[in-house]
Write a structure and sequence with these properties.
By secondary structure, this protein is of the alpha+beta class. It contains 9 helices and 8 strands.
């Protein structure tokens, strides 16, 4: 009977003290801890969770910083390439201007030669008649005059033939130079368009990365602030814990003395056992190699025009589409070209119905066969896209379906 009354009194004391000595800031819910130990355990768990979130946020920041550095490097190198391309375009424009001048000179020479030919034809076709070289020869009055006329006609015919051949050669040279300049200009224009589009996407990605960095910094600060508040509450509990224990012990002893004193003629002895709860804090080779080689760069790379051809680019996850494909195949022991034009004309072309994982697939982006990737099966391919870096994309829907041109090459 005495033991039962003591347990009831102890429980009452704990409940009373748990309410009157609760540390400010602990929410008063129905299941709120009723002892300092339980409150400390709860706070330790929350502190641990806050610390884990801080570490996770810091890891995300570290990865984001690496991504920002890669994008910054790509933007810097792309700007250099854009400046270089613009310089080449200016030089080409000067070359075009010079060529146009030469073309005009050629046209003038051709026109003069044509006028000479016309004058010669007029000389031999006077008075509306048709006098050919044979008539000129047989119209000689003497043998000497005949010989002189033969020499003159031969000289004129040879000169005419030289003029005709010169005209034909100049025309061919003119056409060749026109085609050469046109090809050079188109190539530079394609490069310029590709670089400008890539730079635009990189700048957009840079802005998003900077915003994400700000958000993560704010998240980190919030978690640190919460952790500091929890640690302050935990410290407050630690400071009052000895006083609470002392008060509980004193109250128990006073109640025990009162019960003993009120019991007349009865002597009893017993052992009082303390029950305690422990709170546990929970602390928180083949072509297949070419396909899987790039998985480590998914979400961890940046598109760079001309990238993937140096050890530095590979180490920093900087690839363009053909550079990535060539590098990925090298990881499987294959040596293949690193340009879309060379890749599409290498290997063996197969039909889309026979497409297998490891085959190269081509897309008409800014030009015919402007993009290439590696088919991974299931209507998807892996490649270095200008908007995402290395990523797996679907060929069965959306943009890539609309630009897939059906070219499939197998090595």
């Amino acid at each position: 009977m005495l033991k039962k009354k003591l347990v009831v009194l102890n429980t009452t004391i704990l409940l009373g003290l748990g309410t009157s000595l609760a540390v400010p800031g602990i929410n008063a819910h129905a299941n709120q801890p009723t002892s300092v130990t339980q409150q400390q355990a709860s706070l330790q768990s929350q502190i641990s969770d806050a610390q884990i979130k801080i570490v996770e946020t810091q890891e995300e920041l570290k990865k984001l910083e690496a991504q920002i550095n890669r994008v910054d490097k790509a933007i810097k190198e792309n700007k250099s390439l854009i400046d270089e391309t613009k310089a080449k375009m200016k030089a080409t424009e000067k070359e075009i201007t010079s060529l146009e001048k030469k073309i005009k000179e050629l046209e003038d020479r051709i026109e003069k030669r044509n006028n000479v030919l016309k004058e010669r034809a007029r000389t031999f076709q006077e008075n509306g008649g048709s006098v050919d070289y044979i008539e000129v020869l047989f119209g000689a009055a003497s043998f000497k005059e005949f010989v002189d006329r033969v020499g003159a006609v031969a000289t004129i015919m040879e000169a005419d033939q030289d003029l005709i051949e010169s005209n034909e050669k100049d025309k061919k040279d003119l056409e060749a130079k026109q085609n050469e300049v046109k090809d050079k200009y188109n190539e530079l224009n394609d490069t310029k368009l590709d670089l400008e589009e890539m730079q635009k996407q990189n700048v957009d990605k840079q802005k998003k990365n900077e915003q994400a960095k700000k958000d993560l910094k704010a998240k980190e600060a919030e978690n640190k602030e919460r952790k500091a508040e929890l640690e302050q509450k935990y410290g407050s509990l630690q400071s009052v814990e000895p006083q609470i224990k002392k008060m509980i012990q004193q109250k128990e002893q006073d109640n025990l003395n009162q019960l003993v004193a009120s019991t007349v003629g009865t002597s009893s002895s017993g052992n009082t056992s303390k029950a305690s709860k422990s709170s546990s804090v929970k602390a928180s080779g083949g072509k297949s190699s070419a396909i899987t080689a790039g998985y480590k760069y998914i979400g961890n790379s940046t598109y760079k025009f001309g990238g993937g051809r140096t050890a530095s680019d590979v180490a920093n996850g900087l690839f363009d589409c053909s550079g990535f494909v060539s590098w990925a195949y090298s990881q499987a022991g294959y040596s293949i070209p690193a340009s879309t034009d060379a890749l599409k004309n290498s290997g063996t072309r197969v039909s889309t119905s026979d497409m297998q994982p490891g085959d190269l697939v081509f897309f008409n982006t800014y030009k015919t066969d402007g993009h290439v990737g590696i088919y991974v099966g299931g209507g998807k391919f892996i490649g270095s896209q200008s908007s995402t870096g290395v990523a797996i994309a679907s060929m069965d829907s959306g943009y890539w379906k609309s630009v897939f041109n059906g070219r499939v090459v197998r090595f």
